[in-house]
Amino acid sequence: MTVSSNGELHYMGKLTKQAKNPIIAVAFDDNQAPIEEWRDWLNIAITDLKTRFHFKKLNGIGYSNGGLALSAYVQKYHETPNFQKLIILGAPYNDLDEKDNAGGAEFDSVPHETDMLKSFLNRKKKEPKRP
């Protein structure tokens, strides 16, 4: 499925009622849009999938900026549908510049926190602890 910048959905392939745990890839045609737009486009796509196929539970995998979009979606639209599992890989929550990344991956503290990272960390503090 592709979501255009005007919210139009383009389906590729077919999904039958017999499908169990289907994998649906969602792509945005504007990869330079703000994360808030991706979040809202993802809402359009998930709402459409929920309406067409009556999904009640989902699992989500987001890679890179897709992870940011999925995280932002879950934070804003967390009530429906119910995500059972989320996997976020390589999402640049703290899009550091080159000089911040020059020291390698071993560090004890984050040298700089972007507003996005602060927002996600603050939200995490408010979430109830899960078993």
Question: Could you characterize what this model shows?
Answer:
36% of the residues lie in helices and 16% in strands. It is of the alpha/beta class. It has a single domain (2-14, 21-95, 105-126), classed as Rossmann fold. Helix 1 (35-53) packs across helix 2. The relative contact order is 0.12. The model has no long low-confidence stretch (mean pLDDT 79).
Compile the SSE list and pairings.
Elements: E1 2-3, E2 9-10, E3 27-28, H1 35-53, E4 57-63, H2 65-76, E5 82-89, H3 98-101, H4 115-126
Parallel strand pairs: 1-3, 4-5
Antiparallel strand pairs: 1-2
Helix pairs in contact: 1-2
**SSE series:** EEEHEHEHH
The shape is globular
What's the N-to-C terminus distance? 34 Å
CATH architecture: 3-Layer(aba) Sandwich
Which strand order do you get reading across the main beta sheet? 2-1-3
Any idea of the CATH topology? Rossmann fold
Strand content: 15-25%
Largest sheet data: 3 strands, mixed
Please state the average pLDDT score. Answer: 79
Whole-number count of domains: 1
- Quantity of strands, as a count: 5
Structural class: alpha/beta
- For this structure, what is the CATH class? Alpha Beta
Contiguous helical run count = 4
Radius of gyration: 17 Å
- Taking pLDDT < 50 over at least 5 consecutive residues as the criterion, the unreliable ranges are none
- Report the CATH superfamily: Alpha/Beta hydrolase fold, catalytic domain
The percentage helix is: 25-40%
List the keywords.
3-stranded mixed beta sheet; 131 residues; 36% helix; globular; Rossmann fold; two-stranded parallel sheet; alpha/beta
